[in-house]
Description:
Elements: E1 4-10, H1 17-28, E2 30-34, H2 53-58, E3 61-62, H3 75-91, E4 95-99, H4 103-110, E5 113-114, H5 122-135, H6 137-147, H7 149-153, H8 160-173, E6 182-183, E7 188-196, H9 199-216, H10 218-227, H11 231-237, H12 242-249, H13 255-276, E8 284-288, H14 294-306
Parallel strand pairs: 1-4, 1-7, 2-3, 2-4, 7-8
Antiparallel strand pairs: 5-6
Amino acid sequence: MAEKPLLVLVGPTASGKSAFAIKLARALDGEIVSADSRYLYRELEIGVAKPSSVELGAAEHHLINIASLAEPWNLGLYKQSVTTVIAEIQQRGRLPILTGGTGQYVRSILQNWKIPSHGPVDQLREDLETIGDRIGFDNLYEMLKAIDPEAAANIDYRNHRRTIRALEVILSTGKKFSDQREKEKPPYDTLIIGLELPRELLFKRIDQRVDDMIAQGLVGEVQGLLEAGFGPTLENMRVIGYTEIMTYLRGEISLADAIALIKRNTRSYVRRQANWFKPTDPDIHWLNAQDPALLENALDLVENTFGITPQR
Length: 312
């Protein structure tokens, strides 16, 4: 059976993926599938720059606002869900458009990762969390890097939850976490489009986005999450924007310092994103996000690759 088309839109944070994905969906009779790990959670809004209700209504979106911070998702659950969603869109005769900046999520689909099915071992997880509290989670990450450097390279050192999960699987199975993540050819005819911007302009857009988040009420959003009891979960997930504001709300830093940290940490995140989506990757068709002909160029790529005639 012929492979069905899958359009993938990647690029760094603040490059304009969400808005451009809507334009592509409307021109190509497509539906948008989120590959942003933060968009899953209903409780996160301002600090993750989630698409607005108007944007969500402008095209069909999937895997947004479907989970709670009370029960965080993992990569395996995402992979299972996104595979089902893509198949359903294709069965409807529409084009799935996978887009987001969480590199691990995107690559899990593009490379058809076989995620370790080993479930959590509660006592071992609690022990690892206790060790992390005692020696510091940075040192726990260094432990993972010594045992399984390949797995560590694909985990943000600040993401305590993923570090613990990898160590948990290693210690309970006796096998490297990276060795258990097999890859197979994906069952899709895939076109990957990347949006690129000059780094200086991208950083200016990030700074403006952070300022806008503060103006829109990010401090109040974080305060509400703390009052609802989500502080430990947010600390464990290390969601940029939320952890810095929590530090401010605890009185440890000023608001100005928290804002500066958010901007700095977001820039660092952009640099890590580049490890997943390299400018030299021959499979990614990089397009200038500032080009007035951006949409036309992208639609030409889709038409030439899939034979789909867009609505121009």
